[in-house]
Amino acid sequence: MSVDPAPQSRQRWLIPVLVVVLSITVAGGLLARELYRRPDSPRAAGGEATAPSATTSGGSAGKSGEVEVGVTPDAENHPQDDAVRSVLKAYFTALNKKDYDAWTETVSDARRSKQPESDWHRNFQSTKDVDILLYRIEPGAQGTLRALVGFTSTQSLNEAPVDFQEPCIRWRLVLPMKYEHGSYRIDTVDSTATERDKC
């Protein structure tokens, strides 16, 4: 039993249709890239976006604890990059400085209600977060944002997660961000969107 080849008329239109579909796909991708890119993002000589290093100026216990948030080119090109980085900087600086009042200005009402001040101080007494890096910003449900963030945390063992007792942990997690009280704030974190490794 032999298979008959496709009729000649079908082969004639197949290649032009594939070329048109491929061209539209490429053009759509290029257009989306141009629309997504912020025109004011800094560019290196080679045309690629530069990413500041993810470092902290509060490396030793005697320093201020203020952090800088590094960013990948992908996150830097998001329209809400500055707003998200500003919240992350304030959030991690408040943790490092043990400033509960400043921390409450960076989190949603729902998150703050789950962490009263006495619990917060007990849970973060020795915690120090460094090397904060914003990898990606994505839209979430109902106007929220999802920020993929990595950082390194050092803490005493009694403040480490019960199921991961390590003095130094590299975290990668998705931080949901909700627009509340005139700015984006970090909402409650879903534990399934968290990865961690020991340093």
SSE layout and pairing:
Blueprint: H1 8-36, E1 70-71, H2 73-76, H3 81-97, H4 100-104, H5 109-113, H6 117-123, E2 128-139, E3 145-154, E4 168-180, E5 183-186, E6 194-198
Parallel strand pairs: 1-2
Antiparallel strand pairs: 2-3, 3-4, 4-5, 4-6
Please give the radius of gyration in angstroms: 23 Å
* SSE sequence, one letter per element: HEHHHHHEEEEE
Number-wise, the strands total 6
Sheet with the most strands, sense and barrel status: 6 strands, mixed
Number of helices, counting only DSSP H or I runs of 4 residues or more: 6
Q: Please bin the fraction of helical residues.
A: 25-40%
Percent of residues in β-strands? 15-25%
Taking pLDDT < 50 over at least 5 consecutive residues as the criterion, the unreliable ranges are 38-62
Span from first to last CA?
A: 64 Å
Structural class: alpha+beta
Q: Average the pLDDT over all residues and give the rounded result.
A: 80
Task: Identify the overall geometry.
Answer: elongated
Protein model, in words:
By secondary structure, this protein is an alpha+beta fold. It is built from six helices and six strands, in the order αβαααααβββββ. Strands 1, 2, 3, 4, 5 and 6 form a six-stranded mixed beta sheet that branches. A hairpin with a 2-residue loop joins β4 and β5 (183-186). It is elongated, with a radius of gyration of 23 Å.
